[in-house]
Amino acid sequence: MPGDAGGATSGAAGEAERPEARLERAVRAAEQALIEFEIAVETFRVEVENFSRLHHQKLGPMYTRLDELDALIAEARAARTGDPEDVLKAQSARALVMPMPGVDELFGDWMDADGLSPEAAAMLTDRQVQPPRRVRPSDEARKLYRELARKAHPDLARDETERQRREEFITRVNAAYGRGDEALLRELSEEWAAGPAPAATELSESEELYARLEWLARRKELLTVVARDLEDSAIGAMLRMAPDDPDRLLEEIAEQLLAQVAEREAELAALVQ
User: Fold this and answer.
1) pTM of whole model > 0.70?
2) Which of 21, 88, 138, 142 has its Cβ near the most Cβ atoms within 10 Å?
3) Considering Cα of 260, then 261, then 266, then 269, what sign does the dihedral take?
């Protein structure tokens, strides 16, 4: 009937969604996507930094020893041949060498002020050896970090005061995560839960929502560059080779370096005999 048709039309018009509501949903989705991306980038950054630190600590002396052996080999070859080209190569190799590591540097994890470290003594006496320090934060620390980042991320702020509060809090969260401090991350989680709830806001105007989308897009572009630099770095490439077991990767690299040291030492011995 005409009356029914008019009522249906009126109801449909009343239920029509405002364009700003659709735009706001797009902004919220973009915010959540950016937060997840930032979490992934920050997680990988911490992994790269920790792996780089441990890589230098464990393998740096071996690389230095290889450089020293290369210089000694080049010098021995130059002394034997007298070839100006060999002499130049020897000088170049020597220029690249850092001071020769001592026993305490090569075996820092085996020696302490009293001689053998507890770990080395345990191995010699067949006692249980302490596991190596993790290269990355634990799974529980990763879980706590992700939860806190989703809840307290500065991109969710709606005014400058709230953004500043969130930025200061997330700085503390990032520091705790970088150290793999599960206990502190739990405390921070409790602190955030007990803190003031974000103030309710009215629906943003279309211009503000569009500006927000543009800012989110620029932020994602910046993070993409950061992520690419991390992935393209030497440590990042190495870490991607064994994302689930970087400790084992260090062991494999150490074995390869030890084999190269043995080869260089044999080559040097043959030249100086």
Assistant:
1) no
2) 142
3) positive
